[in-house]
Amino acid sequence: MPKLVYDFAEGDKDLMDLLGGKGANLAEMARLGLPVPPGFTITTEACRVYLAEGREPAGLRDAVGGHLAGLEAQAGRTLGRSDDPLLVSVRSGARFSMPGMMDTVLNIGLNDASVAGLAARTGDERFAWDSYRRLIQMFGKTVLGVPGEPFEEALDKAKRDRGVTGDVELGTGDLKVLAAEFKDIIRGATGAPFPQDPRMQLDMAVRAVFDSWNGERARIYRRRERIPDDLGTAVNIMAMVFGNLGMDSGTGVAFTRDPATGRTGVYGDYLQNAQGEDVVAGIRNTVPLDELEHIDKRSYDRLLQIMKTLEDHYRDLCDIEFTIERGKLWMLQTRVGKRTAEAAFPIAVQLADQGLIGMDEAVARVGGDQLGRLMFPRFHAGPRARRIAAGIAASPGAAVGVAVFDSQTAVRRARDGERVVLVRRETAPDDLGGMIAAEGILTSRGGKTSHAAVVARGMGTACVCGAEDLDVDTVRRRFTGPGGVVVAEGDVISVDGSSGAVYLGELPVVPSPVVRYFEGGLDPEGPEAGDLVKAVHRIMSRADAVRRLAVRANADTPDDAARARRFGAQGIGLCRTEHMFLGERRVHVERLILAGTDAERERALAALLPLQRGDFTAILEAMDGLPVTVRLLDPPLHEFLPDFTELSVRVALAEARGEPSEHDRRLLAAVRRLHEQNPMLGLRGVRLGLVVPGLFGMQVRAFAEAAAACAGAGLHPRGEIMIPLVAAVQELEAVRADAQRVLAEVAAETGVPLDMPIGTMIELPRAALTAGRIAEAAQFFSFGTNDLTQTTWGFSRDDVEGAFFAPYLDKGIFSVSPFETLDRAGVGRLVEIAVAEGRARRPDLGLGVCGEHAGDPASVRYLHEVGVDYVSCSPFRVPIARLEAARAALGETAGDTR
Ligand code: PEP
Ligand code: MG
Predict the structure, then answer these.
(1) Which residue puts its alpha carbon closest to atom 4 of ligand 1?
(2) 21 burial class (0-12, 13-18, 19+ CB within 10 angstroms)?
(3) Is 710 a catalytic residue?
């Protein structure tokens, strides 16, 4: 049988998984010889068995009994003994600190008899009764689940009857009456008396801690923080020490350095004559910790000494809870302290400068998520902010603007100098103009990989999607939110893409200095750069020196390319060409689709060619000297045509007026012909290239001519051609042969040798499973993990996140959306097969990843392990990927930044 209970003396900080954070650190402090009250920890393993089987594991009761006996021997007292009781606290303590779980029950061991013993020992009857009524109240609330209000009401009434305002002003008699009332409340609510047996109190409290693992708030917290549901919590049982035994006692919290800036100093709060929960409850005002020097110099000096010991030992910022009992200092808790993203970078660099850690460890101590948080402007949501909806935080950032409901209005009003937020039920490629013009995007449908989300992230535009509470009425140009709030076109709203919140009116924002630094607008060595930017610069410099993975960007405009380059991108891994076929150019696409003869089609393609060449030239210029992977057209053609319903109405109305338009009628026929039930699985990607003659050829020619022109101008273009949605090598072979022919033609025409690698996306399971064969026709693979996830799971990426991911997450089917973090077991397996078989067939095969996962910290670390050459993500995520690639390369030392 595994060991279910550990004395503090038996554990250490490396046993976090088994003893939880609190237990492991208490054990570590005990090992360091610091003054920790004696106690023991019930393991997370015991909790896991309890949760699985619905009862305590065999042997737990005896093990607790054994350790309790040891504790009693150490303390020289017996739990709950009537003349001189040992009292204990019971606290939860999971691997990761987790608000929402049952916290603490103090004073276990008190009952109608031992309360007198406690009074006698401490010489303070009031204190004893106050402790007892606290126990009954806390036990009732947290262990027995009795609502808190009746206790509060009884307490308030007692104070009113006495004509006092503070708890401390109640006398012994009042507290005795209250204790009796509290017991009545428990009996009334549960039908059973408050348990008098100390051991029973202890066992019930332990069980309540176990149960609280599955409390609703704990589950919600775990889901948000991606903490696995099956870890369980440890339980810490510790001899009570009292901070409420008079003015020479007290309790406090301390940080070894400022968690907001990282500066060393004395940070914390102290409250005289109080127990832990008084500090948190804010019942009385605490004093700054440095005042303890005047209150109790000996304890203060000892505390500072301990803080130094802890920081040197943990080599990180620690936070501490302590209690002073009649002039004796006790440590109740320590842990490596949480810090804001703003503090994490400066702290890591300061610790390195102090020689406590090396620069590599400094890199490992910060995370891509934290860096991401530093990059987006933030709202200051003050108390008057009016929140009207919440959706999925799809693309971070803070946007303020007038609500508009269609792309054209967005473009027009933005051109007139207004800031706009585009509100749609969902977006489509045709909304791109409006999306670019908008400060922010709000949709009522779709998840994190919906069109709106992907495009917004790519552009670094704030986006909240899937705000299902909103009823968006694009016809009447307004949306209705919960409670009937109506926002009409022109009303100002604020959209927080970092939290998913939407507010009515304008919230103030603050710009990010970190982005100014990445943009090159803030010199990290200059006087304007603060500690944060300096620290980010040093960490990023080190990160770039140690990472193996290259980082490219997904960009399809020269501006995006240039920005990506400033952000450190080493090329473009995915240039989606579909965005180049919209706006004014759509007519040419329409002509291509409607072409009845070869000549008509060739004319349409010829009109597109120079436009496309111009796009590519500008991008190659922006990325001069770095690889640029152009992906040939991917989406189904009907996305470039008008909406079927709208067009049908237009044609019908025109016919009714007797003014039929031949063009519209042909268009309608084409829309009908191209309609697909499942367009994402239809005529798109390489299939388009094979059935629309000349389309891919035109794109290849445009790219080749652009490269030749750049080379002619003395630049160093490094184009790569990428074919999307290949499932069979034969598809690739056919398209590749065409592309090679066009490249040879352009080389001959221009006299510029064109050595452009031709590769394929691997974004269908069949491609991954036949990767060895496909590698024969591909010089590189780029994993399109968006489509690969969609087709592996059979999840429509535009629909499922909003539709049913919430219950899936609730039921623990996955702890994070597979569209967000790469699913290693399924999608990852396909990637691994393709990497292995592709490389086996072609050892110099280039390998990249260009799905959304390429900018996700956890996925980047995985992709490093898989051994791809580069990841390619949206420009704003390039720094995040650079940092995570470094953390991955630093391997085991990369800590958890949660
Ligand atoms: C992908 O499928 O992962 C990909 C990058 O292509 P897109 O998102 O454009 O389909
Ligand atoms: Mg794709």
Answers:
(1) 784
(2) buried
(3) no
